[in-house]
Amino acid sequence: MHLLQEKTIIQGLYLQGCLDETVISNNKSGEFIRENDCSQINNDILLDVLYASLITLHNHVNYQSFSNRDTLMDDVIYHFANTCGQLCEESVKERAAELLRGRYQNFKRMSGEELLQSLQFLNNCGLVTVTHVTDDFECSPYYSQKLLSDFGEKPSKQEIMKNLNVCIKYPMFYVDVVQELLGKGVVDKIPNSLPGSIVKCHVRGLLPDTGCFEYHDANDREIDYVNTSFQKAVEISVSNKKMTQTHFDVLPDNYRKILLSKDMEGMRGDVELIPYYQFIFDYSVGKEFF
């Protein structure tokens, strides 16, 4: 049995245990807890959503990309074509097909309500962050929580993925998949772009996930994290970005602006620079930024 198959069994058992606990919690409750509804899902459906989320990492994509198995294969080949040498493209595709057998087809067959319940459940378990994507600073800061808990609306999967960005909090899950596809040795040669994505996922998982959204407008200007409740914004990077590469200028007045960097610190105008590793360490040990 492959290592990842064993991990998948363990993940499935963990998710099943969480599902069982939720069902028991609802059964014991005097009043049905709508946010805990898991009547439409099982551990296989949850794993289908998690594996589909692998292809996006921190990036917001449309439904077509989110549900496309080939996107993961293409990303792996793109990242590792120059570092895995002995592994040809067809070999990678073959192993990816074996690994992901049926997952994406299952996701395509999933109903909108099943997807919403899955995202709500995975979010409640602390496995994913679900962030509203918008260019409207007047939007409800609790849009994603309302959408996930209000199953009466029954939006389509296309609408869900258009308005939400799903990010696995612990993206070493992605590294496990890459390791299974390309072998353990290749992890030592991971290109810079992948750890950068892993850091973005990790930081998103550390930040408060209520009262916030991801800014993305029609001109492709983006800010990774905007919290309207605390009036703070964070751009997440593992490189030393120039101020001209950021879009803090779209923020309303009086926002605290934080740019994570490779090793720069201090102030650049009204933007606070913090090395990403320092931010992660400080936040992990309880330092309050919000």
Topology:
Blueprint: H1 3-28, H2 43-53, H3 63-66, H4 69-80, H5 89-99, H6 103-109, H7 112-124, E1 128-134, H8 143-149, H9 157-163, E2 164-168, H10 172-182, H11 193-206, E3 212-216, E4 222-227, E5 232-235, E6 256-261, E7 266-268, E8 271-275, H12 276-284
Parallel strand pairs: 1-3, 5-6, 6-8
Antiparallel strand pairs: 1-2, 3-4, 4-5, 7-8
Give Rg in angstroms.
20 Å
Give the CA-CA distance, first to last residue.
45 Å
Can you give the helix content as a percent range?
A: 40-55%
> Which blocks of ≥5 consecutive residues have pLDDT under 50?
29-33
The helix tally amounts to 12
The fraction of residues in strands falls at 5-15%
- Mean pLDDT metric: 77
Which structural category fits the helices and strands?
Answer: alpha/beta
The tally of beta strands, per DSSP, is 8
Instruction: Going across the biggest sheet, name each strand in turn.
Output: 2-1-3-4-5-6-8-7
- Tell me about the largest β-sheet: 8 strands, mixed
Gross geometry: globular
List SSEs in N-to-C order.
Answer: HHHHHHHEHHEHHEEEEEEH
Textual characterization of the structure:
- With 290 residues, the protein is α/β, with parallel strands linked by helices.
- The chain has an eight-stranded mixed beta sheet.
- About 2% of the residues have low confidence.
